Amino acid sequence: MAKGHRSQIKKERNIATKERRPHASAKYVGIPATKAKIVLDQIKGKDVVTAAAMLNYSPRYASDIIAKVLKSAMANAENNLGMDVNKLYVEEVCADQGPTMKRIRPRAQGRAYRILKRSCHISIILNER
User: Fold this and answer.
1) Structure pTM?
2) How far apart are CA 28 and CA 48, in angstroms?
3) C-alpha to C-alpha distance for 69 and 42, rounded to whole angstroms
4) Residue among 17, 121, 33, 21 nearest 74 (CA)
5) Residue 24: count of CB within 10 angstroms of its CB
6) Which of 31, 66, 70, 129 has the most CB atoms around it within 10 Å of its CB?
7) What would the pLDDT profile of 31-53 be if each residue is shown by its tens digit?
């Protein structure tokens, strides 16, 4: 039989499995995952200073949103985990498909075309070198 109260056992298990790497995510972002992945692939494996500079000068719309997520992950690393920002690099990036809004566009002769407004969930995981 287990020792301690059920809530204490769950608490200890959650602490043991908790993610130790700094991360940040943005949910329900109004861009398709395919367009976000193009920008995310460019910064994967780079150190955070270089990645932030690349996102700052990228002409794509997704780069502004991804820059915010990267900045948030950097702040999480510094404030929550006490890591040095200069030693961080982008370890994992992910753009998962979110819900799709379906809209109707009226066309000629009573027809209707469907417009799919896709969204995605962007997450960035950093690590120290």
Assistant:
1) 0.82
2) 24
3) 15
4) 21
5) 19
6) 66
7) 999 999 999 999 999 999 999 99
Residue 127 identity:
N
Question: How many whole angstroms separate alpha carbon 30 and alpha carbon 127?
Answer: 27
- The type of residue at 13 is R
Residues 6+ apart with CB under 8 A from 75: none
Say how far apart CA 74 and CA 126 lie, in whole Å.
8
How far is Cα 48 from Cα 70, in angstroms, rounded to an integer?
8
Looking at the chain, the whole-number percentage of residues with pLDDT higher than 90 is: 80
d(CA 24, CA 45): 16
d(C-alpha 58, C-alpha 37), whole Å: 14
How far, in Å, CA of 12 to CA of 47, rounded?
Answer: 33
Residues 6+ apart with CB under 8 A from 61: 31, 35
